[in-house]
Structure formats: C-alpha cells, structure tokens
Design brief:
Belongs to the peptidase S8 family. By secondary structure, the protein is α/β, with parallel strands linked by helices. It has twelve helices and 17 strands. 27% of the residues lie in helices and 16% in strands. The strands form four sheets. It has a seven-stranded parallel beta sheet, with helices on both faces. Strands 1, 2, 3, 6 and 7 form a five-stranded antiparallel beta sheet that branches. It has a three-stranded antiparallel beta sheet with strand order 12-8-14.
Length: 452
C-alpha cells in the first residue's frame, strides 16, 4: 500500500524543504523507516501547521485557522510503500519506534471525472458563452487578464485549444510544474482530458494566464494515463502556494481547477482511521488545500460523476461519493447541468463527507466544445462543469482580487445569487442552484458603489 508519512525533522531540515529555492531529497529528511520502502523520486513537501483561535479545535472545518510554515511549526511529507500484509503492524510500529513520525496517511489513486453517459452533446460552447453572459462580463473588463488559472489534470495541448477557440491563449511556462517523473513541456502534452479543461476555462476568461500542472500523468504500477496519486497533488498545491506568495498582496489572484477525485475506498484507510483521506480534515492534503485557500486562492473541485441516475462504473462508495477535498468547506464543489439547465444524471449528489452541504453550485457541461475526444463527443462530466466555473471565477478576479473579495466572500456570492432549483434554498442535487452571472454582476456593481 502506498502511503504518505508525515515527519517532524529538525527545524533546519523543515526550513530547507519549505524553501522554494532549495531542492531537498527524501534522504535529507529520513534515513530509512522500518518496514517502509521510501520513494526517493518524490520530493518532500512541507505541510503547514494549522493554528486555531484560542480555545478552538484545530481539526474542526468551521474553526478559524491560520497556517504556519515556520520551521518550528511545519512538518514534512515523504512517500513510501508498506507491504499489504503488514499495514496494521507498521502503522502501529512507526510512531512508536520513531518520535519524529507524526502520522501515516493514505495516498489514494486520483482519477479524472469522465462521464459514463453516451448521449450526444446538448448545445455548444457558444451557448455556454450566452448563458454565462460573457459579452456582458467582457464589457465590464472581466475577461481574466492578469489572473493565474492553474489546470491540475493531464496536461494542456495549447495548439489544439488555440485552433478550437480561434485565438491565442496565454500560458505561463515558468510557473507551470510537473510532478517528479513526469516529462513533457507545458502546453505540449497530448490532447486529452486536461486540454478539454483548459478550453472550458477560457470560455469566460479568454485572457487568463494558464498554469499547466499535469498531476494525472504520474505513473504507478498498473495505472492508466488518466490517474495519479494524491501525493503528487500535495506537491502541486505546495508549488501553487509559492506561486501565490510571489504575487503582490493587493492584486493577488490564483484560481485552481481540479476535475478529479478519489472514486474508491480500496485505496484509502477505513473511515475513522487516523490515516484516512475521504472523511478526515486532518489529512495533509486537506490541510494544504485549506492553507492555500486562506492565502487567497480560489480552489474548485468537480463534485464527481457518481450521480445515482448514471453512475460512473468506477464509483465504489455506496453512498456520499463527494469525498475528501472535493467536499472541503474551503472549496467550490461543482455539479453539472446541461445547457437547458437540467441536472445531468451523472452529477454526484451530496451530502459531502467533509462538509454536508455539497455540491455548492452547478455549472454547464455536456456541450460541444473542445472536441478533445473527437468531433462528435461532448465536453462532459463535472470535469467540464468545474473548469467552466473556474473560468467565471477567473473573469471576476480580473478586477476583484482576493484583497478586495476574499475566496470565502466569492463563494458566498456565487451561492447567494444562484438560480435556486428547490423550495428550501439548498438541495443535494443542485446545491444552491445553477450559476447566475447576471445576478453576480448586479451584486458586484452594488458592492463597487458601496466601496466608493
């Protein structure tokens, strides 16, 4: 079983791992752990320590936290493998034998959210433009210019996106990032799932600056070209924290689109186990997601394609399939509707595992757009809905950086203005409803007048 091992080495080692200008190795952090085959190819990652308000519970998702990367506070993640028949023994022995071992956590397989449906596209991306009021957005200067938009997926083929859009895209090659062992240049990956996601973000935000992060290309024994390991997402989010910290505070904006998730408990520890990911706010990835959001990033995750009417064949959770970070209180969890506004049958329903009220909101999917999978194939799944949403968020950030409108305030704005599809204001099919760009723009205009 592949695992993440959280260590607290000496402060000077923590400082080296946290320093973006230093490349620390697994050997620098750990000289060997009993019964663990350490993965020397994985670059250690610093995990910030959550610091709650006085008297609070550090593991409560409703707690106001700050996150410290100070050498005396932070810890370090390395990756390794434990024999399946020794998992229970090693999980007990490691903390007992080494006082620097904080915990051992699941490193589940993460997979892209492809649709199980074979239906033809419903409308095309120009319909999505109309529904998102893109002309009105751009008339107000909200087109994504200067906004960093990270696509964590299978990599982007920039030439294909340019041909389909009929205009050039902006790609930041310097701030793009590959997991250890993944080769390929930013914007030059084969046309696949990540290319679809990149195209869909640019419907609303054509001038956003894309950051290419191919986390789903990291290979494991028996893996496919469309899955990776959560440990690589941990490293990717650590990189994005450096990207965000390098921006001026007054104009800080980073949108992170994640069209992937964990489909099966077979890769995870059981619920209630301290190493569990699906239901555990203390898992290092869930902590690092929270720290990035608090620093000013807008983090979006697809709700997944485990809807009861048309469930993806990989869905192995018997209930509550919106798991882990996809259900985090600090992210926007995106469900899917077609261009007629009807929920698509594969869009996962709540409640979520970390936060009950998930998904947050629905965006458009199952339309003819990127043609990344062929001329007759739609951009589908919550995999398409998530980057469509990320594009709208990036457009808003053009003139509303996080210093002016925090990620939490923007999430609240999108939920409050959504076109409600229930009688109670929230339901587990649509969340708070379908995105309403006109309502968002009206609210921003009122807020702008009040700020004068």
């Amino acid at each position: 079983m592949r695992v993440l091992i959280q260590l607290r080495p000496s402060p000077d080692v923590v400082a080296a791992v946290a320093d973006p200008d230093v490349t620390a190795t697994t050997a620098d952090v750990a000289d060997g752990l009993p019964g663990v085959v350490l993965d020397a190819s994985f670059t250690p990652v610093a995990v910030p320590r959550p610091v709650p308000a006085a008297g609070g519970d550090p593991l409560s998702l409703n707690q106001v936290l700050t996150f410290s990367l100070a050498p005396d506070d932070a810890s370090v993640i390395v990756r390794g493998e434990i024999s399946d028949d020794e998992v229970s023994t090693r999980l007990t022995l490691l903390p007992a034998l080494r006082n620097d071992v904080v915990g051992v956590f699941a490193d589940p397989v993460i997979e892209s959210n492809l649709t199980c449906g074979g239906d033809a596209p419903v409308g095309d991306w120009h319909d999505v433009e109309r529904l998102l009021h893109v002309t009105e957005l751009h008339a107000e200067g909200l087109d994504g210019a200067g906004v960093a938009l990270a696509i964590l997926d299978t990599g982007i083929n920039a030439a294909h996106v340019t041909r389909r859009l009929g205009r050039d895209l902006v790609l930041d090659k310097e701030r793009s990032w590959n997991p250890d062992g993944v080769t390929g240049r930013p914007g030059e990956f084969p046309v696949n799932h990540g290319t679809m996601c990149a195209f869909d973000t640019l419907i609303a935000a054509p001038r956003a600056t894309l950051i290419d992060v191919p986390v789903l290309l990291s290979q494991r024994p028996g893996g496919s070209a469309l899955d990776g390991l959560l440990s690589d997402a941990v490293a990717a989010f650590s990189h994005l924290r450096t990207v965000l910290a390098g921006q001026p505070v007054e104009s800080r904006s980073l949108v992170v689109s994640n069209s992937w998730g964990s489909f099966s408990p077979r890769w995870d520890f059981p619920v209630g186990h301290p190493g569990n990911y699906s239901d555990n706010p203390a898992h290092p990835f869930n902590l690092i997601v929270a720290s990035l959001e608090q620093a000013g990033a807008d983090v979006l995750f697809a709700a997944g394609n485990c809807g009861r009417e048309c469930k993806d064949g990989r869905c192995a959770y018997p209930d509550r399939p919106i798991t882990g970070a996809n259900s985090h209180t600090g992210v926007l969890s995106i469900g899917g509707v077609d261009t007629r506004g009807e929920r698509v049958g594969y869009s996962s329903q709540g409640p979520g595992r970390l936060t009950l009220r998930k998904p947050d909101i629905c965006f458009y999917t199952h339309f003819s757009g990127s043609k990344a999978f062929g001329d007759g194939e739609p951009d589908s799944g919550t995999s398409a809905a998530c980057p469509v949403a990320a594009g709208l968020v990036a457009a808003i950030r053009t003139r509303w950086p996080s210093s002016r409108l925090s990620p939490a305030q923007l999430r609240a704005l999108l939920r409050r203005t959504a076109d409600d599809r229930s009688d109670v204001g929230f339901d587990y099919d649509y969340g708070y409803g379908v995105a309403d760009t006109a309502g968002v723009l009206a609210s921003l205009r009122r807020r702008s007048k009040a700020d004068r």
